[in-house]
Write a structure and sequence with these properties.
The protein is of the alpha+beta class. It is built from 20 helices and 44 strands.
């Protein structure tokens, strides 16, 4: 929300406003609003002058229409200017930047030859003057705004900066100058009078138009005011145009500008209908399946039964709270005969926020109106807002207010909230001044009473309580905690002391937390970079990974209200997002990547019960709590790693080495070592890995499979646009058994004995299985086993290969004899022969 100091001064005593926009921003911050940006006044120097268009010569010999204009200043002074805009005519007041002027961005103005003419200056648009983003035409000033020759900088108010605020969804009332002025007055301890209360709303004598609300849940209130004989060609006054431009909106026409100005000023979105094009009773209802509506943007939309519509005798005439229909819009000036007057119906309604939010997202039609309705508009505001718009159309457009006002529905009641008077003091840990709680709640608009009663939160006897009835524009004040927050933020968060709680003795990180940190540190020290993957995936992610239709990872949990409609399901694996991050980094020029993430995934089972919906007025019962816990899917912590590009960089020392499946397996072993276990690789087949270059990771001594590592399938790398040989690891960290007391390593002072064996085995026998068999056969004397050579060739028969292992043997209490070493070797080879039918080469 953008607002200028002059607009705020309409509702606050200008004498209390700070002199600088930075001070205004600081005041907003003090009451909990976030200042997004302070837009300084446009930097303009030199002569920028109001002029009247005296003559226009159309230059038709060029591809695009060009005009050669004579613009007059005071007296007989004039200039000739070349201009391509078409939205002005002879007699209009325009802004001319004369030679020597410098516009925002350092754009210097000088006389120059163009299109065969000399352009002695420039007729400026609002964007060129730094007034807004509109560049569709030049800025035309309303008649009477200024006289030719006046300094345009003073006329336009270009010396005024604008404060832009980021409004949180729970404070929708701050999407209006009315709400911002209230907050600023509170921050400055200045007097404030609600602008809506200053609008005289006469008693309704009959209806302005027949209205029926068929869906009272979607539309609790609908107000219609009628103004006849409005001149649609009447210009909007400059003060209104300037206010709209400062808020980032483009002035269009008087009727549209009035509805936009009232919306920005008071916070109530309005819609104006051409009364002559509305037929019969207006009805607010849900759409029927298959109904269609042409909206103001010219698009014909197929409606959903959940859409809330404004209809008349002809059918839908508007998508409630989002956008009006083309059939009842007020015609453009080009479509009206000169002197035509228009009868205007002004709609001011209150709609359910969720209904409007769903409709705007469904049709991809975000609007200034829907933004406000989504965050709740004051239901008591429609009569005042409609009356204010009617007054402006009468005053500026020469209209006549029709008798009557339709006010269907009503204001939903607000429930009072009771809290102990000293609850804010107890929550903040300080003693506020006497009367601070009542004063602050009154400032936000609450009606406050003091009452004596029992404090249900402490069980104490009679205490003084505050009974606060929230105002209609604050539906977020529902419980004592909400009132406490209001008192604390208005008294100032900066006065609340920062005190760290004492850490109880004997506490610290759990074993699982220590393990997670150890794994992360080990990966980082090995050159991997940690990333934070998005926890949501799209349904198409599983196809890109090549998962089978019955793969358990396709069974996911849907998010009811996803942040991204394309990614609406909780992920069951870290790989899709890790690969997306890999692709994103490569698109930015990073080719050699080793990324890792440690995060939770969600694994629902087929028999997971439905989540119960307990009441929120009290603590769930033990049975309800147990049911909630039972309905939660498993959420184990996984470690994911992806490798692409060179694992060892190239340089003067060599050509480098690309990452491969071996690096993925070694990374998995590193993770196991950091977690306090040994992970043994074993051949496996599992998507999305290459079937011949995939290893399942087994916890040594337990046989438990905790993850997979290897090279990704070529179809997967192709689907993601990744280089061939891209490798990945995913390990279920929670599946690795925790070992609180790891065995102390023994160090032997006696020398080791190394023996080598070469085994001839079938091609299909994995080297890891042979190593496991050798380990089992060698017994306690074996310290390590390492594969150091693989041979296939003429000396080995077809279908077989030779694998050479180095066995390192050592005893803790003696030097091994050759007989002991040979016996251990023979036992290892014998076990390998029993398990896999190998023979010594």
């Amino acid at each position: 929300m953008r607002v200028s100091a002059s607009w705020l001064a309409r509702h606050i005593d200008a004498a209390t406003l700070p002199a600088s926009p930075e001070e205004i921003g600081e005041a907003f911050v003090r009451v909990g609003l976030e200042v997004e940006e302070i837009h300084p006044a446009p930097e303009i120097t030199g002569p920028v002058t109001v002029a009247r268009v005296q003559e226009i010569e159309e230059l038709t010999e060029f591809k695009k229409p060009i005009r050669y204009c004579r613009v007059g200043f005071e007296g007989d002074r004039y200039r000739h200017v070349v201009c391509g805009a078409r939205n002005f005519a002879v007699g209009d007041l325009v802004v001319v930047t004369e030679p020597g002027a410098v516009l925002p961005g350092g754009f210097a103005i000088a006389s120059r030859s163009t299109y065969g003419k000399v352009s002695d200056g420039m007729i400026a648009s609002a964007k060129e003057l730094g007034l807004g983003a509109d560049h569709s035409g030049i800025l035309v000033l309303p008649p009477g705004t200024a006289e030719p020759g006046d300094d345009a900088l003073d006329v336009l108010g270009l010396s005024e900066p604008v404060v832009e605020l980021a409004v949180t969804p729970d404070r929708g009332y701050c999407f209006a100058v009315r709400g911002l002025a209230r907050e600023l007055a509170t921050a400055l301890d200045a007097d404030y009078t609600d602008p809506a209360a200053r609008i005289a709303v006469p008693p309704a004598e009959g209806d302005a138009w027949p209205v029926r609300i068929a869906d009272t849940e979607g539309c609790p209130r609908f107000v219609v005011r009628r103004v006849d004989g409005v001149d649609p060609a009447a210009p909007s006054p400059w003060w209104m145009q300037r206010a709209l431009l400062s808020a980032g909106m483009r002035p269009i026409s008087l009727i549209v500008d009035v509805t936009n100005f009232v919306m920005l000023d008071l916070g109530q979105p309005l819609h104006a209908y051409d009364a002559s094009r509305v037929t019969g009773e207006i009805e607010v209802r849900r759409a029927a399946a298959g109904e269609r509506l042409e909206t103001l943007d010219g698009q014909t939309r197929t409606l959903d039964p959940d859409d809330l519509l404004i209809t008349d005798g002809s059918g839908p005439i508007g998508l409630a709270g989002v956008m009006g229909g083309a059939s009842t819009e007020i015609p453009a000036l080009d479509d009206l005969a000169e002197g035509t007057r228009v009868d205007v119906l002004i709609e001011a309604a209150h709609f359910a926020p969720t209904v409007i939010a769903r409709g705007a997202r469904r049709h991809k039609l975000p609007s200034e109106a829907s933004r406000r309705f989504e965050r709740v508009v004051d239901p008591a505001l429609p009569p005042a807002a409609a009356e204010r718009a009617a007054q402006l159309l009468v005053e500026l457009g020469g209209g006549t207010p029709a008798d009557g006002r339709t006010d269907a529905g009503g204001v939903p009641p607000t429930a009072p909230v009771r809290m102990p008077l000293d609850l804010p003091d107890r929550v903040a840990g300080i003693a506020y001044a006497r009367g601070a709680t009542v004063r602050r709640l009154t400032q936000v608009g609450c009606t406050v009473e003091l009452d004596a009663g029992a404090d249900s939160s402490t069980g104490q006897g009679s205490v003084v309580s505050v009974v606060a009835t929230p105002p209609t524009w604050r539906p977020d004040l529902r419980m004592p905690a909400d009132l406490v927050e209001e008192v604390l933020r208005l008294e100032g968060y900066d006065v609340i002391p920062s005190v760290l709680p004492a850490a109880p003795a004997g506490r610290g990180l759990t074993a699982a937390q220590r393990r997670r940190r150890a794994v992360s540190l080990a990966l980082a020290e090995a050159g991997h970079v940690e990333v934070l993957p998005f926890p949501f995936v799209s349904a198409g992610a599983w196809d890109a990974l090549g998962l089978a239709a019955d793969d358990e990872r396709r069974r996911t949990v849907a998010v009811t209200n996803p942040l991204d409609a394309e990614r609406s399901r909780l992920t069951t694996t870290l790989l899709p997002e890790l690969l997306d991050i890999l692709v994103r980094n490569r698109s930015r020029g990073a080719d050699d990547l080793a990324l890792y993430a440690i995060a939770q995934i969600v694994q629902p089972s087929e028999d997971t019960p439905a989540m119960p919906d307990p009441v929120v007025t009290g603590r769930p019962s033990d049975e309800e709590y147990a049911a909630i816990r039972a309905a939660l899917p498993d959420q184990p912590v996984h470690v994911g790693v992806v490798l692409a590009g060179n694992r060892e960089p190239r340089g003067w020392w060599g050509r480098g080495r690309p990452a491969a499946w071996e690096d993925a397996v070694e990374t998995a072993r590193l993770i196991g070592s950091a977690a306090g276990v040994e992970l043994r690789p074993r051949r496996a087949e599992r998507a999305p890995w290459h079937p011949g270059r995939c290893a399942e990771l087994v916890v040594s001594g337990t046989g438990v499979v905790v993850g997979y590592a290897g090279e990704l399938h070529p179809k997967v790398t192709e689907a993601f646009g990744l280089p061939a040989r891209t490798a990945a690891v995913e390990i279920d960290l929670d599946a690795i058994p925790l070992r609180e007391n790891l065995p102390v390593p023994t160090v032997s002072a006696f020398p080791p004995v190394s023996v080598d064996v070469a085994l001839v085995a079938d091609d299909g026998v994995p080297a890891a299985d042979l190593a496991e068999a050798l380990t089992a056969g060698a017994g306690e004397l074996l310290e390590s086993v390492r594969l150091f050579d693989v041979y296939t060739g003429d000396q080995v028969e077809a279908g077989k290969r030779s694998l050479a292992f180095s066995l390192r043997l050592r005893a803790a209490d003696r030097t091994l004899t050759s007989e002991e070493a040979n016996a251990a070797r023979d036992a290892a080879v014998a076990e390998a022969g029993v398990r896999h039918g190998v023979a010594l080469r």
